[in-house]
Amino acid sequence: MHAREATETDAELLLGWRNDPRTRQSSRSTAVVALDEHLAWLRGVLADPDRLLLVVEHEDAPVGTVRFDRRDGDGWEVSITLAPESRGRGLSGAVLAEGERAAWERLGVRVVLAAVHQDNTASAKLFEHAGYAEAAPAVSGFRQLRKTLS
């Protein structure tokens, strides 16, 4: 696994993953996103020093994306999306771990937060196996998890 910082040339790839029905089902926003809206969002993320968007590759092919958004204090919220064709291959743990490693190295991220939809058992298992623990009561149907990187 190797994480690289996303670029504008990744726009269509990331939009396809974002608009996948299973991805939307577990997202805070479940609407289909148009290309122009996605490009504006992507440009904003890439220019923001408080955000890190990574594309994780396995065997030279992109298999997922991990994004870190600075929150209050020293916490960074993580979001992970696997490419639809990468699901069911046992890659999610490695994609998350590679994202965490890259965030630690690039930004010194130590505290990672995750908001996991209460109905998303696969994501809950992923984060629990990766060492995340309940940090606060659920908010709007999303469990609040936390991990300290070392």
UniProtKB/TrEMBL annotation:
Asked if the Swiss-Prot or TrEMBL record annotates the protein with the keyword Hydrolase, the reply is no
Listed A to Z, the keywords are: Acyltransferase, Transferase
- Name it: N-acetyltransferase domain-containing protein
Q: Which residues form a coiled coil?
A: none
Q: Where is the N-acetyltransferase domain?
A: 1-150
Query: PROSITE patterns in the record, alphabetically?
Result: GNAT
Q: Which InterPro entries match?
A: Acyl_CoA_acyltransferase (IPR016181), Bact_Acetyltransf (IPR050832), GNAT_dom (IPR000182)
Q: Does the keyword DNA repair apply?
A: no
Q: Which molecular function GO terms apply here? A: acyltransferase activity, transferring groups other than amino-acyl groups
